[in-house]
Amino acid sequence: MAIVTLTNVSRHYPAPTPGGDSVVAVDNVTLDIEKGDVFGIIGYSGAGKSTLVRLINALEPASSGTITVDGVDITALKERELRGVRRGIGMIFQQFNLFAGKSVHANIAYPLKLAGWSKADIAQRVTELLAFVGLSDKAKAYPEQLSGGQKQRVGIARALATRPAILLADEATSALDPQTTHEVLELLKRVNEEQGVTIVVITHEMDVIQTLATKVAVMEHGRVIEQGPVFEVFSAP
Ligand code: ADP
Ligand code: ADP
């Protein structure tokens, strides 16, 4: 079953200079992400990957086309309804985006507080997440006291806190060294296999796709120029 479907989706931005051509960041993209997939989106800088993520996450509207998330056509929703859609999608980032002034525990607890969980439920869930990402001894630490890999593991725990069905990883290992990258990718594999979370991985790194993804879409100049199982798309010609 498809959990995210894009049908003929485009996103234009106004021309950077008056009278110039508008920028077509995403150009007539059609793709299907199945429940349980680890779906990679690869392309060079400027290919339109981040724009695609913001469209899927309902952070900005499509200029044309339809996007469905979990069976709901999000292009037809109002702002208030979009908040519900966003709650079903966890995000992790290249620069981790942790709250520097909050402890590891408080970072992970944050989305649960927003969602109105009780203190007891939050404590239990955070303990469970810390164990899952292997940071039970770091609950009271602050982000600046952690390595890059540890920070990203906190990011993953925070993104999963409210049990989203989808995790969007936007260049999530691009700031990490190869060994740490490998550890984070292994953790994401477990998120997919043990928790059944559908993962969308945006990257410019082929290694990330080959280690983690089962399917891939290759983007160039806003278009998906190829998509399918990783072994087919990247098999030698
Ligand atoms: P990628 O994530 O693959 O590097 P982006 O989605 O960031 O690509 O960018 C795709 C294209 O859209 C680029 O030409 C970029 O300059 C342009 N673009 C992205 N965001 C905006 C914006 N908010 N306003 C205008 N142009 C944008
Ligand atoms: P805040 O509103 O700043 O998040 P809290 O009252 O939730 O404050 O928690 C105060 C501090 O104690 C936070 O830094 C939080 O990370 C930490 N904390 C709360 N519960 C636990 C716990 N069960 N284990 C470890 N640290 C905790």
From TrEMBL:
Entry keywords, A to Z: Amino-acid transport, ATP-binding, Cell membrane, Membrane, Nucleotide-binding, Translocase, Transport
Q: Does the keyword Nucleotide-binding apply?
A: yes
| GO-annotated cellular components | plasma membrane
Q: Which residues form the ABC transporter domain?
A: 4-237
Superkingdom of origin: Bacteria
Q: Which GO terms describe its biological process?
A: amino acid transport
Gene Ontology terms, MF aspect? ATP binding; ATP hydrolysis activity
The answer to whether keyword Membrane applies is yes
UniProt subunit comment: Homodimer. Forms a membrane-associated complex with FtsX.
* Reported function: Part of the ABC transporter FtsEX involved in cellular division. Has ATPase activity.
Family designation: Belongs to the ABC transporter superfamily.
Protein name, UniProt field = Methionine ABC transporter ATP-binding protein
Natural source organism: Microbacterium mitrae
Top-level taxonomy: Bacteria, Bacillati, Actinomycetota, Actinomycetes, Micrococcales
